[in-house]
Amino acid sequence: MEDPMYSLQDVIRCDLCETPVPPKHCDICHIHLCEACVGEHLSDKSKDHYIVPFKLRGITPKSLDKQGEALHTEIDTIIKGMKSEIDDMDAQHIAAIDQQEDAINRTIPKITQAILDLKRLLDTSDIGSLSKLVITYPLLDEARILTDIQTEYRRLYSVSCLSDSELWTCGDDNILRLYNLQGELLRSVQTKSGHWPRDIAVTRSGGLVYADGRDRSINLVSGTKVKRLITLRGDNLFVTEWDTGKVKILQYNK
Q1: pTM flag (> 0.90)
Q2: Which residue among 23, 39, 62 closes a domain?
Q3: What are the angstrom distances between the C-alpha of 242 and each of 48, 121, 249?
Q4: Least-confidence region, from 97-106, 158-167, 182-191, 245-254
Q5: In Å, how far are 89, 92, 150, 220 from 103, measured between CA atoms?
Q6: How much is the CA Rg of the chain, to the nearest whole Å?
Q7: Residue 15: which domain range?
């Protein structure tokens, strides 16, 4: 809504210099003042003065004090409410921390006891009691022939099962061959050195590993590629079934 002060042209003027639309007012002397005349009016020390914006004229200091008190009361109420909320949150957090602390304190003795039990187990030579294993399949007095496969080797040296129906073979040539139980040749891989392999084995992931005595290496067959994993230095590489002399057995990790 438009202020009546600005709706009537030149009705309200500074009481000292007649400047229209004065922005200030002295509530004690009840006169309107422009900015330029405020200092002149305050220079009269014979009486008190209370300069306020024109829109706040007529509002006494007591009214301002009451309004200030109301604002302070409202602010105090808000602050008290916020403090109460913070206290509630602190109480909840402290309760949760106490619960966690109790749980940890209950767990510490169990962990300590478990550590002591493990230490005693390491120091003891008592292996406990042994029980007889239950064998689900009876031992065969004689080997049972599951299938008869004609390989291309003159001498077959080693067999390693890839699955229940497929097996890798090696013999007296430089070719590793994969057959199924029907005798069909599924894959063939030539050794990297061109020499016949000493032995073969299938890894847990289905890869084929073979030992090459010619270059003292352990090799992995992956797809159509042959990757050399280990090469011995100074020692011969053998697959030993029996020996009357000294034998060095080495284990390598991946």
Answers
A1: no
A2: 62
A3: 124, 36, 13
A4: 245-254
A5: 21, 17, 68, 51
A6: 51
A7: 9-62
